[in-house]
Amino acid sequence: MRAFWTAVVLAFVSLLSVGAATAEERWQTLPEPAAMPAPAETGYAKVNGIDMYYAVYGSGDPVLLIHGGLGHADIWASQVAEFAKTHKVIVADSRGHGRSSRTTDPFGYELMASDYLALLDHLKVDKTAIVGWSDGGIIGLDIAMKHPERLTRLYAQAANVTTDGVDPGVETNKTFGAYIERSGQDYAKMSKTPDQYEAFVGQISEMWKTQPNWTKEQLATITVPTAIVLGDHDEAVTRKHTEYMASVIPGAELIILPNASHFAMLQAPDEYNKSVLEFIDRK
């Protein structure tokens, strides 16, 4: 019996050792965002029946940062601090996310894209670069297809263009689970409806079941200079799907961020910022 329990304990210690080793891998971490800098302007824009929170930083050629599903604008703190040195940086909370309100209208990427276009109108910004992460990248692609005149460049990280681009393993991924939990905590602190996180998740989940669902012919109409970007350990979007996107969008640049996952902007902010600026500032 002693030999049996010794084997069990040794096996458990071995698992802990593996866990300790893998815990050191950058792509498995979920760092807290840095503190947001002080904005030059902030407020709520009334767009499409919602109050949309936004903030503006710095000056120069504009860049709009669009966060991913369940997130909020403050996840971009490290990017805002760097980009605002040379750019007018705009961030916002997508409808229902963070500090922005939502309606009973079904969520859809085209609707969310129209929210951001209305925000740009509110801010009197005719044309901007977009850096979109996950759902934000999908919103950016929608704008690139339907309103290319509003964009200078699109840096789309961890986006998908059909639902089968999502890795099914994301449902049990520990890092992604931690992100969902943190998002719920942030929602309770930020939202004007702090007790409605589950209802909000249920509402946006209906969109995720069927959207996006673009054909290669639709994607082939994109004329905006586009970077299709993925962390080499992304938990949510497959590498195969990302490579497909880059192959069907005319002139798209494929960028693979090393030792990073879906949350590259938090895990490797300096490398992420360098990658973005090299692309959006390219002449």
Automatic annotation (TrEMBL):
Gene Ontology MF terms in the entry: serine hydrolase activity
Keyword Cell membrane applies: no
Every AB hydrolase-1 domain range: 62-177
Gene3D superfamilies, per database record: alpha/beta hydrolase
Keywords assigned: Hydrolase, Signal
Signal peptide: 1-23
Domain of life: Bacteria
Annotated coiled-coil segments of the chain: none
Record protein name field: Alpha/beta hydrolase
